Amino acid sequence: MANYALRVPESLFAYARKMAEEENVSMNQFFVTAIAEKVSALKTEAYFRERRERGDLADFDAWLGASPDREPDAGDELPECAG
């Protein structure tokens, strides 16, 4: 386990303290969870960016073209737009 001294603006710290109290967790747990959520979001973004770069629109179009032309299965229909 590592320690890191963190400088946080007073207003943000006060809000974080309030949120931690509402969630019934320690400030440490609140900050660790917040950091984990941010790291997860960044990793997810990187994953999808890498997947997009590997993608090939021509291959996708060919795949769609090979799909059968039929009505969707029950429950898979698009919802009707109100308007």
From TrEMBL:
Source organism superkingdom: Bacteria
Biased composition (Acidic residues): 74-83
Region (Disordered), start-end ranges: 64-83
This protein's name: Toxin-antitoxin system HicB family antitoxin
